[in-house]
Amino acid sequence: MNFLLPVRVALFYLMLAFTAFVWCLVSLVFAPFMSFRKRYRFVVQTWCRGAVWLAKAIVGLRYEIRGQENIPDKPCVILSKHQSTWETFFLSAYFEPLSQVLKRELLYVPFFGWAIMLLKPIAIDRNNPKAALRQVAKQGQERLDQGAWVLIFPEGTRVPVGQTGKFSRSGAALAVNAKLPVLPIAHNAGTFWPKSGWSKRPGTIQVVIGPAMYAESEGPRATAELNQRAEDWVNIQVRQLEEGGA
């Protein structure tokens, strides 16, 4: 039935776009009158769960999770591998409420961007790295104080399978200053949902949630050490997943 896969992928994108448009319209009407937590569940969690389900039902893209026991009771900073769009949907549905660091250009997308603005994202200007770091530090602390998880893709952009990107220290710095851990997450979503193009293929994505990592001291050196520890763990896990053909 592989010859039907392009048709299934096209149907998936059609359904994804349709549900996104409808749900953004509904959210813009009702979400402003909700508390932040209820708004997040209504706008993001519901639709993202639907997107993950569509990928499973239409494309055959399933997933397995390991390491749920490592998730702290209190929200902290999530540092995740970034290979595709799938993990954005999955993590946004799995952790709630969650504030994501994203490029501010997404806020300008009609309907979609307007709905995102209701959810307290940390929308940075990638062309101004110094200002972006200050913004992540300030707004990230505010989100953590409000009881939200902060999701950061420390590589800054989606990285193709088999490649790695240098981790930005912004997430580790935020965790050190807040005296909270970072929660590293590895996966192999890019194997089934590549960074480039429209192609998808059925299979089972492996998601591995690592142990919460705390800084051993304070200051820039502690930030660098924590960031490197998280980067090494994620890269090792991803390499094992890719070599295992998961």
UniProtKB/TrEMBL annotation:
Pathway noted in the entry? Lipid metabolism
Q: Which GO terms describe its molecular function?
A: 1-acylglycerol-3-phosphate O-acyltransferase activity
**Entries under InterPro entries matching the protein:** Plipid/glycerol_acylTrfase
Per UniProt, residues of the Phospholipid/glycerol acyltransferase domain are 76-190
Q: Does the keyword Kinase apply?
A: no
Q: Where is the chain membrane-spanning?
A: 12-33
- Quote any Pfam family the record assigns: Acyltransferase
Entry superkingdom: Bacteria
BP GO terms, sorted: phosphatidic acid biosynthetic process
Q: Does the keyword Transferase apply?
A: yes
Keywords noted in UniProt:
Acyltransferase, Membrane, Transferase, Transmembrane, Transmembrane helix
Q: Which PANTHER family match?
A: 1-ACYL-SN-GLYCEROL-3-PHOSPHATE ACYLTRANSFERASE
Q: What is this protein called?
A: Glycerol acyltransferase
- Taxonomic classification: Bacteria, Pseudomonadati, Pseudomonadota, Gammaproteobacteria, Pseudomonadales
